[in-house]
Amino acid sequence: MWLNDIKTGLSSHVLLKCISISIFISLFFVAYFYVLNHPPTEATAIPIINLDNLISFQPMALPIYLSLWVYVVIPPIIIIKLKELYAFTLMIALMSMVGLIIFYIWPTTIAVSEIDWAQYPSFVFLKSVDAAGNACPSLHVATAVFSGAWTDFIFRRIKAPTWIRLLNLVWGISIVYSTVATRQHVVLDVFGGLILAGFAILLARSIFQLKI
Question: Which region, left, alpha or beta, applies to residue 209 given φ > 0 means left and ψ of -120 to 50 means alpha?
Answer without folding.
Answer: left
